Structures are given as structure tokens and as C-alpha cells.
Amino acid sequence: MSMILFACVVRVRDGLPLSASTDFYHTQEFLEIRRRLKTLALRLAQYPGRGSAQGRDFSIHFSSSGDVACMAICSHRCPAAMAFCFLETLWWEFTASYDTTCVGLASRPYAFLEFAPSFRMEPVTALGVLSLVLNIMCAALNLIRGIHLAEHSVQVAHEEIGNILAFLIPFIACIFQCYLYLFYSPARTAKVVLMLLSICLGNVYLHGLRNLWQILFHIGVAFLSSHQILTRQLQEKQSDCGV
User: What tens digit of pLDDT does each residue of 125-134 get?
Assistant: First the structure.
């Protein structure tokens, strides 16, 4: 799990949120710490330029100067020095992009959302590239067989609908697995399990149209892709902090 889970830029004098990263977490504990962050943002003018608030599972860190403050929600594994380094880098980048006049005239929340603090995924690995290539190949095979069977079924019988769906549903699942590997998505684990089950059940249903080795190949690729998706994590934006 990423150590810096959420970051935002706020105006100090009134706590107006100016920009924020995408929120990927929806647990009750995280929503509670988000509410604490909003309350703290409204009182930033009363605090010194740097501070922290500890929760049970998460920590809030903030760093401010002038009328701009940067805040972050971090896991307990995140060292405070790393969090403050990240916030200072974020502050410099934001103030270099928007001057005090722009900040002072902002009248609506998230007026500078295009600046949204970003969390990139970890670099793609060689095994990850292999899983993508194999997944695309499996998707293509499913699509070709599904379309061919659909053309044949329209002319002959309608009982082949189940077989057609058993090809096309895994096709969609394979494409979605590629998406989940390349881009972060909330509730990723649940989606990975759903895609894996779709592929496995579809191929089991196709026993007779595919031999055992073909079925094992498709299921093996699905498991490899699932593993690669779940092991590729968010990567915090790195800065030259010396931490």
C-alpha cells in the first residue's frame, strides 16, 4: 500500500481546497481521517507552519507558508520527514504555477484541480509486459472464436448463445485486466477477483470446444495477470529530499 494516500492544497485563511489528488480509499477509518483533515484545514491560520495529527491507522501532516498550505494523509509506515519533504515540494510546485493573486481570488473549491497532486504507478516490469502481451493474445483468441461462433449460430441454432457468451465475457475480462494493470482503480482487488472468476468460469464452460491445455493456458495467463495487477502499487512522487 502507498505510504502517502491523499494530498491536497488549501488556502490558509479560510481552508478553501484549491486542488487535491484522486481519492482511492473508502474505508470507514479513511473517511473519518478525511473529515478530520477538513476540520483542521479550517483552522490552519491558528497553527504554526508545520504540524501533524495522529489517528489510529493514519496520520495527517501539513506544511504552510503565506496563504497556501499543503496537507497529506499518510499511513503510519510513512516517516514524518518524507511526508514533510513531499509537502514542501508540492508547495513549491503549486506556488510556482499560481501566484498569490490567483490564490486570493479563488472563489470556488478546487479551482486549480488541473494541478492535482499525482501518484504514479510503480514502473512496469518485464513480467508485467509479458502478462499484457499474453492477455491481449487471449483476448484476441476469445474475440475471434466468439465472433466466428456467433456467425455460425445465427444461421444454425440459438442454443450456442451460452458458448458465445463464454468467449466474449472472458474477452472483456482480459481487456479489463490490461486496464487494471496499467491504471490504478479503486476497489482493485475485488475487480481483479471478478475478472479472474469470469475467465476461469468461461473457460471451464467451454470444455469441449477447447482442450485441457488450451483451458489451462487461458486460466494460467489470467492468474499471472491478476498477480501482476495486485503487486504493482502506487508510487509516491519522489523528490530530492535526502530522506
Answer: 899 999 999 9
